[in-house]
Amino acid sequence: MAMGKNIRVLRDIKARHGVQANEVARRAYLFVARNETLPPQVRHQAQLQLNSFGKYTRPTTVKNRCTETGRGRGIISEFGLCRFQFRLKALRGELNGVQKASW
Amino acid sequence: MSAALPSRLAALTRLRCSIFQTSYNPAGIRTGAKYLRARLRGPSVVKYYPQELNLAEIARKYPELEIVDEIEEQRLIDVEEKKKRGKGAPKKAKTKADSRRINRKR
Q1: d(Cα A17, Cα B87) in Å, to the nearest integer?
Q2: How far apart (Å, rounded) are the C-alpha atoms in residues B25 and B33?
Q3: pLDDT digits (tens, 9 = 90+) for A5-43
Q4: pLDDT of A66-100, one tens digit each?
Q5: B50 by DSSP, 3-state: which?
Q6: Chain A: nearest CA to B34, how far in angstroms?
Q7: Which of A6, A35, A66 to mutate to test the interface with B (most CBs of B within 10 A)?
Q8: Residue B41 to residues A24, A50, A72, B30, B78, Cα–Cα distance (Å)
Q9: Across the 106 residues of chain B, what is the mean pLDDT of every consecutive 10-residue run?
Q10: Domain range summary for chain A, segments of one domain joined by +
Q11: Above 80 in pLDDT, residue A1?
Q12: Could you say which residues from 13 to 72 on chain B have a Cβ atom under 8 Å away from some Cβ of chain A?
């Protein structure tokens, strides 16, 4: 079961590790920046710090891609597969509890 | 039934906060508490792609095992062979003019 580890997947993995590494620091700055009880100067400084974080530390750069092919669209999030891989696997009976509809 | 006084309602809220250990914030000022309250997403975010065995990674981690990646070895041999026959990768362009197709020597 070899996953198509193309550059987009590798970039996404990089982003995921970056997000994990910087999450606590980002949260702390977010808390300060969004806290209205703190002086505006402090909040502004915190916001500047937040802006200085790298691209691959933001949670929004993380995209759930197909774990089989790396496709970025048409992902069925419950299985982490794109729609075609989902169909193939479901028909092969590799997904528990998934059945082809028929009525 | 008479409506409760606002001051009495505020007192009730304050008492409720002290009992349930929540912060009393009648004006609804943003305290940023939600960023501290939310769970950390990093651990689950990292686990999205299934882990798989990677021979090159293992070889890099434990050099004392002296693992030989045969596919990689063969690839390097093939590259050398191609270079000998003049079929290697082209030189990296040094200037902008180099990267233009027309200026390139055939």
Answers
A1: 38
A2: 12
A3: 789 999 999 999 999 999 999 999 999 999 999 999 999
A4: 999 999 999 999 999 999 999 999 999 999 999 99
A5: coil
A6: 8
A7: A35
A8: 10, 18, 21, 22, 44
A9: 82 93 87 91 92 81 82 92 91 80 62
A10: 1-63, 67-103
A11: no
A12: 29-33, 35-36, 38, 40-43, 45-46, 48-50, 52
For residue A74, the one-letter residue type is G
Distance of alpha carbon B36 from the chain centroid? 20
Helix (H) or strand (E) holding B95: none
Give the position of tokens 């806290």: A35
Return the C-alpha torsion angle B87, B88, B92, B97, nearest 10.
0
Using the Cβ of A32 and the Cβ atoms of chain B, whether some distance falls under 8 Å is answered with yes
Structure tokens at A18: 């970056």
Q: Which of B76, B44, B77 is nearest to A59 (CA)?
A: B44
